[in-house]
DNA sequence: CTTGCCTCTGACGTCAACGTCAGGTTCTAG
DNA sequence: CTAGAACCTGACGTTGACGTCAGAGGCAAG
């Protein structure tokens, strides 16, 4: 498929795909006229890249990780690298969970008419 | 306390604290000579700001949320706003969990000598 | 009183992941 | 064959959360 179709199917912009190639995250084959062509599994690859970006990884880190994911590289170092990033993500989940719980506490307070919030309510709806 | 002490105790830079004030996330009292002074609870406030930044909220969003957290504003809209952001964070946790699980699967594969990885291992250690 | 650290206000620099525009080529439908 | 959509390569623009530097004033210790 060409770049436009991949962009639509993977839910990213054409510009983003060219950027991924520039960062060596995503390869493409070129036709005689120079147009990029992708295989079906490129959709999956792009979505994985998006997942890793979403986890806060930089394109440099993703570039280092992807060969491990492809199992084209499998050394003690690459396994350690994968485990490292897994731990970072896990820690991020823990942090976010704490943030969510803190917001929950705030929401709880704002909904309880027994709290000091009632003063505000009275002021607003008196 | 002055800005340097707050920065150290909250684990952020002095520049960041001035930036927070500029964004109206953190107020300060000024001495006659113009120096900023903070109360003890500013440490907590800064850490909350950091948590929200860590959850991907912009300073604009944080600025809109903080009055609700302080329970200085309590309207149906502010409660909805809080619930919205809570949901965004919750969704982020779900996404991150999927990313972590995908990495776990990759790690599992790279550790199993029964997989195609053994070919790579042989190539590397033959 | 002066040395040295802390603080102040601008204001420009940075970095990543693209957005966007220019100017030109290529593919496809009719 | 031709219009219009899709594609190409530069290359400059954008945004947020600060970093960093300049120039000047403030404060505690000796």
TrEMBL record, chains A, B:
Pfam families linked to this entry: MerR_1 (PF13411)
UniProt-listed InterPro entries: DNA-bd_dom_put_sf, MerR-type_HTH_dom, MerR_fam
Keyword terms: DNA-binding
Domain HTH merR-type: 1-68
Highest taxon of source: Bacteria
PANTHER family from the UniProt entry: MERR FAMILY REGULATORY PROTEIN, REDOX-CYCLING DRUG-SENSING TRANSCRIPTIONAL ACTIVATOR SOXR
Protein name: MerR family transcriptional regulator
Organism this protein belongs to: Winogradskya humida
């Amino acid at each position: 498929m060409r770049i436009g179709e991949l962009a639509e199917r993977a839910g990213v912009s054409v510009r983003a795909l060219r950027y991924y190639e520039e960062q060596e995250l995503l390869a493409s084959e070129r036709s005689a006229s120079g147009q990029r062509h992708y295989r079906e599994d490129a959709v999956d690859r792009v979505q994985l890249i998006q997942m890793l970006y979403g986890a806060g990884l930089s394109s440099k880190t993703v570039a280092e990780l992807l060969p491990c994911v492809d199992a084209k590289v499998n050394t003690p170092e690459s396994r350690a690298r994968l485990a490292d990033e897994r731990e970072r993500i896990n820690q991020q989940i823990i942090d976010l969970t704490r943030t969510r719980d803190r917001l929950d506490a705030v929401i709880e307070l704002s909904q309880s008419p027994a709290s000091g919030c009632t003063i505000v309510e009275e002021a607003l709806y008196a």
